[in-house]
Design goal:
alpha/beta; globular; disordered N terminus
Length: about 400
C-alpha cells in the first residue's frame, strides 16, 4: 500500500508546474515574464512602481465628462455637473464654520500695512495667516497667494510674503525667493502695486509644521483612513481662504484673484474652478494632461508630494485641464518654462489645447492666456511676474503703484 501511495505522489508531482515540484526543480529560473508567456502576470510592477498593466489603465481613461465629450451641451449645466463631480471626489466634507477672524498684529513696513490674522480655516483648524494691505483707502482688489511644495516644509506662506515676525524663517524665505522668484517676494510686490494679499499655510508647512518628505505617504494614508485626503483637505481650505478674503471690509469681493507657483499653481486654477469668490487666476508651472504625466521618470510616480494633487477616482471622469476648465470663462493665466523637468512638452500642449477649446466655445478666448517660455525651467522669474501682474491689472482691476 505504501508503494502505491509513493507511486501516486510521484505521478501527481510530475503533473505539477515546475515551480511547485520539490527537489532540484526549485532551483530552476522563474517562468518567462508576461501573461502570454507564462499564463499569469509576473512581475506585477514595471519601473517607477507602475503596475505592469499601467498602459491599459491609461488607455481606458476617456474622460467622458470633459466639455465637448460629455453629452451635456449647455455650458452652465456642464459646469455645475463637472464641479459637483470634483466636489464629490474631494473626499473631504464642505465647511461653513464661522471664520471668527481676529487681527492680532498690524504694523507698517515695506510700503504697506502688515497683518497677522487668525481664523478658522475649517471646523478642525484655526490658523495664522499673513495679510498685506496697500497704502490708501480700500476696498482693494485682492490676491489669494498659494504656496508651493518644493519639499521645503519649514516655510509655507513665507515663500510668498516676506516674514517680519521670525528671523529664522526670514533666512529660509530669502533663500527661497532667490531660488525661484528672482529674489522677489511675490506678495510684497503685489501689495506695492495696489493689491491686498492673503497667504495661509497648508497642513504640514510653516506654522502647521510636522511634515517631512517621507512622512507624506503616512499622512496621506492616515487622512484616507479618517475619511479625508491631503488633496481634498487642501482644496477645501483654499476655498475657505478665498471666502474669508471676500468677507473682509478692506477687500473688494468682486475683484479677487488667486496666484501660485508649482503646487501653488495647481491650487490657484483649482480654487478658481471650485470657488465663485475667485474671479481670475495666475498659475505658474503646473499644468499638464494626465496621460502625458503618467510616464516613466516623472516626478509624480515617486508618490509622496503627489498626494496633495490627486483626487482618487476623478480621472475616470475628467482630465486635469478639464477640471481647470470649470473656471471658464473666467480670466486665467498659465505660464511654464520650456525646460521644466516636471511636465513634458506634450503634456503642457495637450492641456493648453483642451483649455483653449473650452474658452473658445464660450467666446472668451481672449480671457485665457497660455504660454511656454523658451530657455526657462521650473521658475517664476521677475519678467514672468511682471507680465502676469500686468495681466491681473487688466482683468481683475489692480492699479499700478509705479
Amino acid at each position: 500500500m505504501a508503494r502505491i501511495r509513493r507511486r501516486a505522489f510521484t505521478a501527481l508531482a510530475a503533473l505539477a508546474p515546475a515551480y511547485l515540484r520539490p527537489g532540484p526543480a526549485a532551483a530552476e529560473p522563474p517562468p518567462p515574464t508576461g501573461p502570454d508567456a507564462a499564463g499569469f502576470e509576473s512581475p506585477g510592477l514595471a519601473g517607477d512602481h507602475l503596475p505592469a498593466f499601467h498602459r491599459r489603465l491609461r488607455d481606458e481613461l476617456a474622460f467622458p465628462l470633459a466639455w465637448g465629450t460629455s453629452p451635456i451641451r449647455d455650458f452652465p449645466t456642464w459646469r455645475r455637473t463637472a464641479r459637483a463631480t470634483v466636489e464629490e471626489h474631494l473626499v473631504h466634507p464642505a465647511d461653513d464654520t464661522p471664520f471668527d477672524a481676529e487681527v492680532v498684529d498690524e504694523r507698517p513696513g515695506g510700503g504697506c500695512r502688515r497683518r497677522i490674522v487668525l481664523f478658522n480655516v475649517t471646523r478642525y483648524s484655526r490658523v495664522r495667516a499673513t495679510m498685506l494691505l496697500p497704502k490708501g483707502r480700500g476696498p482693494f482688489p485682492a490676491v489669494l497667494l498659494l504656496h508651493d511644495h518644493g519639499a521645503r516644509f519649514d516655510i509655507g506662506k513665507e515663500k510668498l510674503v516676506r516674514p517680519w515676525y521670525d528671523e529664522a524663517r526670514l533666512s529660509s524665505a530669502l533663500a527661497w525667493a532667490d531660488r525661484h522668484f528672482g529674489g522677489r517676494f511675490v506678495g510684497d510686490e503685489l501689495a506695492r502695486r495696489g493689491w491686498a494679499v492673503l497667504a495661509v499655510d497648508a497642513l504640514g508647512w510653516g506654522d502647521r509644521f510636522g511634515l517631512a518628505y517621507e512622512g507624506q505617504q503616512a499622512l496621506a494614508s492616515n487622512l484616507f483612513n479618517l475619511g479625508s485626503s491631503p488633496a481634498g483637505l487642501m482644496a477645501r481650505e483654499d476655498q475657505r481662504a478665498a471666502a474669508l478674503l471676500a468677507s473682509l471690509p478692506e477687500v473688494d469681493g468682486d475683484r479677487i484673484a488667486a496666484l501660485g507657483f508649482s503646487m501653488g499653481a495647481y491650487r490657484a486654477w483649482q480654487v478658481a474652478a471650485l470657488s465663485d469668490h475667485v474671479r481670475a487666476a495666475v498659475s505658474a508651472c503646473w499644468m499638464t494632461g494626465l496621460k502625458e504625466m503618467m510616464v516613466p521618470g516623472n516626478n509624480t510616480l515617486r508618490g509622496q508630494s503627489a498626494y496633495f494633487m490627486l483626487h482618487p477616482g476623478l480621472p475616470r471622469h475628467l482630465d486635469i485641464p478639464d477640471v481647470a476648465s470649470i473656471a471658464a470663462p473666467k480670466p486665467m493665466y498659465f505660464t511654464d518654462g520650456e525646460d521644466d523637468p516636471l511636465f513634458t512638452a506634450a503634456g503642457v500642449e495637450t492641456a493648453y489645447r483642451k483649455m483653449r477649446a473650452v474658452w473658445r466655445s464660450q467666446g472668451a478666448e481672449d480671457r485665457l492666456h497660455t504660454e511656454v517660455r523658451p530657455g526657462l525651467g521650473h521658475t517664476f522669474t521677475p519678467a514672468m511676474q511682471d507680465d502676469a501682474f500686468a495681466w491681473l491689472d487688466r482683468w481683475a482691476g489692480g492699479r499700478s503703484r509705479r
